[in-house]
Write a structure and sequence with these properties.
The chain has one domain: Maf protein, CATH 3.90.950.20. It is of the alpha/beta class. It has helices at residues 3-20, 35-41, 59-66, 70-76, 81-93, 143-166, and strands at 25-29, 50-55, 99-105, 120-127, 131-138.
């Protein structure tokens, strides 16, 4: 099985869960740059359960497109759990989706710090009206490896989140 097959399989699994419960998904991506949305839309029939995807790469885009408060970014940093939560909430507030997935992180090779090294990624899963889970990860490898692991964990984590939320 190739790495692309892994992505396709997890995206298909997410789609099956969403479709079976009549739910729609919005993605709000930063470090993954649309890779999650691409993985989802590679699944035939994904228009039944995928509402939209937003790539909010810059701090300004996070603020303008999904309403992340500028003060929150300044205080906590764009790569933080509170910003990931605000991104997911903003995606829900600005779409017709029932479920949101957001990702913000440091893919590298630059941009890391002692507190937040390269590979630090925050992923948030949220469902209407107010269910939210945010997790922090530290992925290894080069830029592509960090991004790929982020996509796989975001989609795999979404499947787990949905199973817990929908029973």
């Amino acid at each position: 099985m190739t790495r692309q097959d892994d992505l396709n399989g997890v995206a298909q699994n997410v789609g099956s869960i969403l479709r079976s419960h009549g739910l729609k998904l919005v993605t709000v991506e930063s470090c993954t740059g649309g890779w999650i949305a691409q993985s989802i839309t590679s699944v035939s029939g994904s228009s039944e359960w995928f509402e939209c995807g937003l790539v909010t790469y810059s701090n300004e885009a996070k603020h303008e497109q999904v309403g992340v408060p500028e003060a929150l970014i300044a205080e906590r940093g764009a790569v933080s759990a509170p910003v990931a939560r605000a991104m997911a909430r903003g995606g829900l507030d600005r779409s017709l989706a029932d479920v949101a997935l957001s990702v913000t992180g440091i893919a590298g090779p630059g941009g890391g710090s002692e507190e937040k090294p390269v590979g630090t990624v925050f992923i948030c899963w949220a469902a209407r009206p107010d269910r939210v889970r945010t997790e922090q990860f530290l992925f290894d490898g080069d830029r592509e490896a960090v991004r790929r692991q982020s996509v796989l964990e975001a989609l795999g984590g979404l499947a787990r989140f949905l199973r817990e939320e929908t029973g």
